[in-house]
Structure formats: C-alpha cells, structure tokens
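Re: beginner question about structure tokens

> Can someone show what the tokenized structure looks like for a real chain? I only ever see the sequence side.

Sure, here's an example I had lying around. Input first:
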Amino acid sequence: MSESSVAAGVRVGEWGLQRVRALALAEPVGQVLAIALGASILLLPAIWNGFPITFYDTGAYLHQGLLDHFIVERSPVYSFFLRFGGAAESLWWIVILQAAMTAFVTVETARTLRPNMSVAVFLGIAALLTVATGLPWYVGQIEPDCFAAIAVLSAYLLAFHAPALGRVRVALLIFIAALATGAHPSHLGLTAGLAICAAVYALVSRKSDWPRANATLPAAGFALGLGLVLAANYHFTDDFFISRAGPDFEFARLVQDGIAKRDLDAICPTVHLKLCPYRNQFPKTADEWLWSDSPFNNALMRFEGAAAESQYVVRDSLVRLPWANLKAAVFDAATQFASFATGDQIEPQAWILYPDIRRTIPRQLDAYMHSRQQEDEIAFGPINIVHEPIGWLGLIGIVAGLVLAIRARARRQAILFGVVLTALIGNAVICGVMSNPHNRYQSRLIWLPVFALCLAGPPRAIAFLRAPPESVT
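And the corresponding structure tokens:
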C-alpha cells in the first residue's frame, strides 16, 4: 500500500471521528448511535462481573417465568419478560434489553430538552452515571429495579414532550411505561401517582403560561401496565388481582416497628388468630420475619397462608393505633428517602440460587458460579465512597435547582426537577411504608437527580436559570 493511500485512509478516519463527535441527538443517526453506545457503557459492570448481576429474587423470577409456576410474592410480568426476552437462552439478552430501554428513554429525555447536545456529551453523561451512581448495577441485574426510573422518565416525557417525540416514539414509550409499571407492585403506585400529578398539573395550569401537560398518555401507560399485571395473574390463577403478598409485606413492617405486637396484644384476648401464639416471638426486623426460620415460614405457611390474618391486623391497627401508624410511616418513609447506598445484597447467592439456576438455565450455571459476584470479589465499600456523596449532592442540587428555576421562571427545568423530586418522595413513601426501608429501593432512582442536573448543562446552569420566560407553545 502506498504512502498516499495510507494518508488518505488516515484523513478519512479523522473525518469520520470528527463527524461522530459533531453528531447531535437531534439527528436520527445520532440517536441510534447514542442508544447503542450508551447501552454498552451501562453494561460495563455486568461485563466486568462476567455474568449478569443477580439478586436473591432472581431464582424466583426464573422459576415462575420459565417453569410456569406461580410464586405469590413475585411479579409475573417481569417473569414473562424473562421468558419472552430470551432468558432460557442467555440472561445476557435480558440485560441487553434493559440497557437498550434505559438508553432509549435517557436519549429521548436528553434530545427533547437539549436537542443540540452532541452524542459525545451524552456518552460522557452515561459514563458519569456508570461510575458515580448505581444505575448500571440495576440495568445489568436480573431484577425489575431498573424499571422504576424508566417508568418515571417515560411518564415525564409522555406528559410534557409528546409533540416533540412523534407517534412512533410515543408508542414505544407507552409500551416501555406499561412494562415498567407492571414489572413490580411498587411501580404501580409510583406511576399511578405520577399520572395523578400530571392530571392535577394539567387542570391547574390550564389558564397559566406554564407548559401544557398531556394527562392522558401517562394514564395510558399506567392502565396498560395494570392490565399486564391483571392478565399475568389471571394466567396463573384464573383470578384477577394486583397482589396477594402486599398484606404480608405490610405486616412485616408492623412487626419491625413494634405495632403488630401491640395490636395483637389487644386483639388476641377476644379474637382467635393463628398469629396470636407467636406475638411474643416476633423478630426485630421485617426481613427476619419474611425470610428467616420464623413462624411466618413454618407454622403460618408463608404468603398465602398468612395473608388473610396479616391484612386483618394491618386494618385493625390503623383503627386502633392511628398515631403510632402515622409516626412509624413518616419515620420509615424518611429513612427510605435517605437510604440509597449501592450494592444492597449484591453478594454471593449461590447457596440459595443454585437449585433454581440449575433447574431453569443449566447451561448458564458454570458462568454464573464463576462470576466475580459469586466468588465474592465485589466490594461496594469503596464504590459507595463515591456513590453516596454524589447521591446527596444530587438531592441538594435538585431541590436548589427547583427553587431557583421557579424563581427564574425557567419552567421546563422546574417541571423536570419537580417530577424527579416528586418521584423520589413518592418512591420513599411507597417502599418505606408498604414494605420497609432498603437501600436498593431508593438507590435505583437516586441517579435521576444527577441526570437531570447534567441536562441543565453545568457550564450554562446560571444562564438558563436567568433566562427570560419561555413560550408556552
């Protein structure tokens, strides 16, 4: 090959690189490239692990989805996602799909707010989120947690940016919102709350100069997600319902807060319940009640056996001990809001998952057993030295940004920050009160403030806050 040919090739390569750097998210090819490369970046922790990240619930979802056996405490929608997403062939297909959906929603959020953002800048934001937040650990995990944030951003886009998205993207976002909503019971409450907030905002802002909201599209995503839950439950049980395990999770929190024993002490002298003989044997935590060698798992026959009495005690305690319930709920919600360390229970789990994985995906068992996670080579202590301060900075930034944006009448930024903050508060209330506080519940959303602040544009943050009022069109 001649020197001139080599030089020409170098020039072409340089031109191509410059072209990629100059690509904006507003261009279709830029969006495709950002989604593909962004998804790849988000998968780096799973790739480094050598296998998709697993959680203690992973085996139950696989068992339910691949063996078609109903498990009352696990969402059948996510189990069906595993089945039809290719989990039997490889769990990598599942995390690739999760990464692609996350990248798509984040790209569309960035494109609608900052259409001139380059692909390179977006990938820099994706890299920052990968290093500084827990996002990639949920995207690369066989667990529905990554869908919580996807549900929030999808609802935001559908409510406030549908015209800029176009019909195809709106249809994709409704589908993603429905899947995200149905993937976990807590997501139902989250998306229902966001849809209600969108409807209230649309009603209140009708005669103001704030941007209009489409309340119908987020409601459609929620309704379709609810339909998925009802249909999936009917497939297994020939009955329509949302969740049969909810009362047991709520009762477990009352055990942890000491309310269950107080209520049973008042009930048991006059009402015979199977729970009564065990009220002096309650463990200290909800997790011990639900998952350890407790009366719940032995004498009471777990979720289906204890559900009716759990529900009875929950309802009775609300009437008998309203102030104790309120104080505990506020404390648990506040605790959940401030608990977002990365890596909650991402640890060796072969002692419990090995039988399910051997039975459902035996060809993947060797790779699973030799992953860094199962060989106990992942240390989240050093990771959280970065992640937790970044989370707190994100929270402080989103609150301050909301206040300043409202004062500066930077309405689009105020709406974005408001949606993110509302979702964080709503998630903390739902998970902290309806279950009990866990780091992973809030960690799966805590990257949203960082992402929202990045979209505001660090070098231009003061400029946009001082911008003149925006047009409502």
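Each token stands for a local structural state, so reading them left to right follows the chain. Residues 22-244+340-465 form one domain.
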